[in-house]
Specification:
The complex is a heterodimer. By secondary structure, chain A is mainly alpha-helical. Chain A has 13 helices and 2 strands, in the order H-E-E-H-H-H-H-H-H-H-H-H-H-H-H. Chain A has a two-stranded antiparallel sheet. The longest helix of chain A has about 35 residues. Chain A is globular, with a radius of gyration of 24 Å. The chains are: A mainly alpha, B mainly alpha. Chains A and B meet through helix 1, helix 3, helix 4, helix 5 and helix 6 of A and helix 2, helix 3, helix 5, helix 6 and helix 7 of B.
Chain lengths: ~290, ~300
């Protein structure tokens, strides 16, 4: 602590940031919680309904459950592409001698592009008329039978809207994991190698345990970002066809701003927050225990 | 265009010192593992980069070529008409200006307020600072969607809908925790003696902030600004929720105007517009990619 500080100076520095944070983040969270107990369309009087919104959401709303499971599928695809891809590339990159900086830059490139641009791009990549990149590629490698309009086929649309999100951020996670891998002590790896450890053993016994704290952080980041995923599904399909690519976030958005059912939308928003907190808790529980074991 | 491979300063795991490896395999012929990993990396990099290259190539195609041709083929003729149509259809200039204003405004708040909070928490210190820290931590986990309905209602009641601040406030608010975190971990490295010496000379907390902490933090400021600019420049959800009028639309909203307005989408012009709008950030990224990469690495790996 600084010797000459006064209580006033602490307040001078702390209050402005707390004010902004309160207005933008804390107060809206409380407000959502409050609104979730009301029925309100923004115009008529607010009506207190107690837990009715929650009961409706959990027991009577098929679209909610559909969106919930879609969101889990979306999350799973994002996690595999982002974390799996990141770990693979980061590990391979450590064994390369030249061109690492260039590869890092190229790999990160999609993260700089806006989601609207990415949505446009992938609409064309998935397109069948005129033939897009994906269908043309399948045709060339002899898998022409798989050619389809990826975004209007209810069996593929969820995967099709998830993949761009995974594609977009895998570079970011790769950077983080790569930096962690570089910090694995040389002596440790050398010793293991002299003892005849295979590459796979080296990875599972030395490297991965060493980067575990960073792995936990990246898993939490990727999961919370995956659960709040919105832009790309909203822009590409708006949840369609039917509800086959509806996520909780897009459903909540439509409930709020298309059906102007502010109370019920807040209930869904509260659920999304709880879902994020539970996910973070689960990750910490599972991975920490594994790390300690 | 991009920075050449930097001299490796950190230890390189696989290029082990020759003494510990049987040198014959490693030196004379590339190992199977090495070749395989290079091929995999090359493939993945192509997947990451080719779609963007394709975007650019398509923006130079004629409409007929786009509608009928093989998507992988190079354009039969290069045309810049798409760009002309892109500028006719939308307000690209205005969109870019708006994105610039919002990015600058939000960054100013994020840097200034983030630095102030970190200074209070890390340097001044006070009882209960741990609680304040954990309150800020909430903002990293909580999804932004929670704020949409409440802010929409609040903005409507104080006539703030459809203004620059309606976008800047939540963008800055949700980015603040990470900024506080980055500044805090930087302030930790400033030796206490620096502050104590200044205090003995009679400098109070305000002068120390202005004369010591602020000037020393330039690198962290660059990191914070670069990382946040990516997200703010590309923000879609807040802009889409709070902004309605054409004059305030940022790039992501402006781009939407190109779709379906006249029933049929002019894809080549749309792609030209996309190319124009991603260029500013892309240039910044390619010029400053080292600083940006470092920022992204440190931003998460310490969290």
């Amino acid at each position: 602590m600084l010797p000459n500080r006064s209580r006033l100076s602490v307040l001078v520095f702390l209050l402005p940031p707390l004010l902004l944070y309160g207005i933008a983040v804390l107060f809206p969270i409380l407000q959502s919680l409050f609104l979730s107990f009301f029925s309100w369309n923004g115009i008529s009087d607010m009506e207190f309904v107690g837990l009715a919104n929650y009961v409706r959401m959990l027991t009577a709303d098929d679209i909610f459950w559909r969106s919930f499971f879609n969101a889990l599928g979306y999350l799973a695809i994002c996690l595999v592409l982002q974390l799996g891809g990141a770990l693979l590339v980061a590990s391979l990159l450590t064994s390369m001698r030249r061109g690492r900086e260039l590869i890092k830059t190229l790999y990160l490139l999609p993260a700089v592009i806006s989601t609207v641009a990415i949505a446009f791009l992938f609409v064309r990549i998935y397109s069948i008329e005129p033939v897009g990149l994906l269908n043309q590629l399948l045709h060339w490698i002899g898998l022409g039978a798989l050619e389809r309009p990826w975004l209007s086929d209810i069996n593929t649309v969820l995967a099709a809207v998830s993949a761009p999100e995974g594609w977009r951020f895998t570079g970011l996670y790769m950077l983080i994991i790569y930096a962690a891998l570089l910090s694995v002590p040389q002596e440790l790896e050398e010793a293991a190698r002299l003892d005849g450890a295979s590459r796979w053993q080296l990875f599972t016994k030395i490297r991965f345990p060493h980067i575990m704290p960073v792995w936990i952080t990246t898993t939490i980041m990727a999961t919370t970002y995956g659960l709040r995923g919105f832009d790309i599904p909203y822009l590409m399909t708006n949840g369609g066809p039917g509800q086959s690519s509806e996520l909780l976030t897009t459903y909540m958005y439509k409930t709020a701003f298309t059906s102007t059912d502010f109370g019920y939308a807040s209930t869904i928003a509260v659920f999304i927050v709880i879902e994020c907190l539970v996910a973070v808790g689960l990750i910490l529980f599972v991975l920490k225990r594994k790390a300690d074991a | 265009m991009t920075a050449p491979a930097a001299p490796v300063t950190r230890p390189v795991p696989a290029s082990a010192p020759p003494a510990s490896q049987p040198p014959s395999r490693r030196r004379r012929k590339p190992s199977l593992h090495g070749t395989l990993s290079r091929v995999i990396i090359a493939l993945i990099v192509i997947v990451q980069v080719y779609p963007l290259a394709w975007l650019f190539i398509t923006s130079l195609r004629t409409e007929l070529d786009f509608a009928t041709g093989d998507p992988f083929a190079l354009p039969k003729a290069i045309t810049f008409e798409n760009y002309a149509r892109a500028f006719e259809t939308g307000n690209l200039g205005m969109n870019i200006l708006n994105s610039f204003i919002v990015t600058m405004g939000a960054n100013l708040l994020i840097v200034l307020l983030g630095m102030m909070a970190a200074y209070a928490l890390q340097v001044l210190g006070f009882r209960g600072s741990r609680i304040v820290r954990s309150i800020f931590l909430i903002g990293i986990i909580v999804p932004v969607q929670i704020a949409l309905v409440p802010l929409f209602i609040d903005y409507a009641s104080i006539n703030l809908l459809d203004t620059y601040p309606s976008m800047i406030i939540p963008l800055a608010g949700f980015a603040l925790p990470m900024s506080i975190y980055l500044f805090s971990s930087f302030f930790e490295y400033i030796p206490r003696e620096t502050y104590e010496a200044a205090s003995l000379d009679g400098a109070g907390p305000y002068r120390i902030f202005g004369l010591i902490t602020l000037p020393l933090s330039v690198n962290t400021v660059v990191t914070v600004v670069l990382v946040n600019s990516i997200f703010i420049w590309n923000d879609f959800i807040f802009a889409n929720t709070f902004v309605l009028s054409e004059e305030l639309k940022t790039i992501p909203l402006g781009l939407q105007n190109y779709i379906g307005a006249m029933g049929k989408t002019d894809w080549t012009a749309t792609f030209a517009a996309v190319c124009v709008t991603i260029t500013p950030l892309l240039l910044v990224f390619l010029v400053l990619n080292k600083a940006m990469i470092q920022g992204l690495e440190s931003g998460a790996s310490k969290g």
